[in-house]
C-alpha cells in the first residue's frame, strides 16, 4: 500500500513538471538571439552557432496551407576553411509552427569552423519563394 502511494506521488510530481519543462525547451528555441559579429574576411555579418543548437526562422509563406518548407545550409567559400567534400546540407529535422520553421544545426564534424548560408525555400500553390536566414559560423 505504501509503495503504491509513493509511486502515485512521484507520478503526480513528474506530470506537474512536464508543462514547465516543455515551456523551458520552447523558450530556449524561440528566444535564440545570438549576437551578430562582423567577419572582415567574409565581408558580411556572421552568427556563431553550435552543432545541435535549435534555430527558429520566420519566413513569409511558411504558414500557408499545403506549403512545403525546405531548409538548406550552403557552405560559403571562405579563405582558410578546409574543403568538406560537399557544398550543402538539406536540414530534414524541421518543425513548422505558424510562420516559423524550427531546425537543428546538424552535428556533422566536417562543418566545425565553417561558415554557411542558411536559406528557407517555401513551395506553395502560388509558387516558390526563398528567404535568406543569414550567415553562420559553426563552432
Notes on the structure:
- This protein is of the alpha+beta class and 139 residues long.
- The chain has two domains: 1-31; 35-138, Immunoglobulin-like.
- 21% of the residues lie in helices and 40% in strands.
- The chain is built from one helix and nine strands.
- It has one helix spanning 2-30; strands at 37-39, 44-49, 54-58, 68-75, 88-91, 95-97, 100-104, 115-124, 127-138.
- Strands 1-2-9-8-4-5 form a six-stranded mixed sheet, with no helix packed on it. Strands 3-7-6 form a three-stranded antiparallel sheet, covered by helices on one side.
- Strand 6 and strand 7 (100-104) form a beta hairpin.
- It is elongated.
- Residues 1-42 have low confidence and may be disordered.
Find the count of extended strands (DSSP E, 2+ residues): 9
Q: Helix- and strand-based class?
A: alpha+beta
Q: What is the number of helical segments per DSSP (H or I, 4+ residues)?
A: 1
Approximate strand percentage: 35-45%
Q: What are the SSEs and their pairings?
A:
Blueprint: H1 2-30, E1 37-39, E2 44-49, E3 54-58, E4 68-75, E5 88-91, E6 95-97, E7 100-104, E8 115-124, E9 127-138
Parallel strand pairs: 2-9
Antiparallel strand pairs: 1-2, 3-7, 4-5, 4-8, 6-7, 8-9
Amino acid at each position: 500500500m505504501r509503495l503504491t502511494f509513493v509511486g502515485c506521488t512521484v507520478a503526480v510530481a513528474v506530470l506537474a513538471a512536464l508543462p514547465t519543462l516543455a515551456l523551458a525547451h520552447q523558450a530556449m528555441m524561440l528566444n535564440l538571439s545570438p549576437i551578430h559579429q562582423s567577419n572582415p574576411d567574409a565581408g558580411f555579418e556572421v552568427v556563431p552557432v553550435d552543432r545541435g543548437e535549435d534555430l527558429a526562422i520566420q519566413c513569409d509563406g511558411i504558414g500557408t496551407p499545403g506549403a512545403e518548407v525546405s531548409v538548406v545550409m550552403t557552405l560559403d567559400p571562405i579563405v582558410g576553411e578546409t574543403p568538406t567534400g560537399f557544398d550543402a546540407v538539406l536540414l530534414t529535422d524541421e518543425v513548422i509552427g505558424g510562420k516559423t520553421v524550427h531546425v537543428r544545426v546538424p552535428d556533422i564534424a566536417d562543418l566545425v569552423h565553417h561558415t554557411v548560408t542558411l536559406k528557407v525555400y517555401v513551395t506553395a500553390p502560388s509558387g516558390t519563394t526563398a528567404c535568406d536566414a543569414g550567415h553562420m559560423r559553426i563552432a
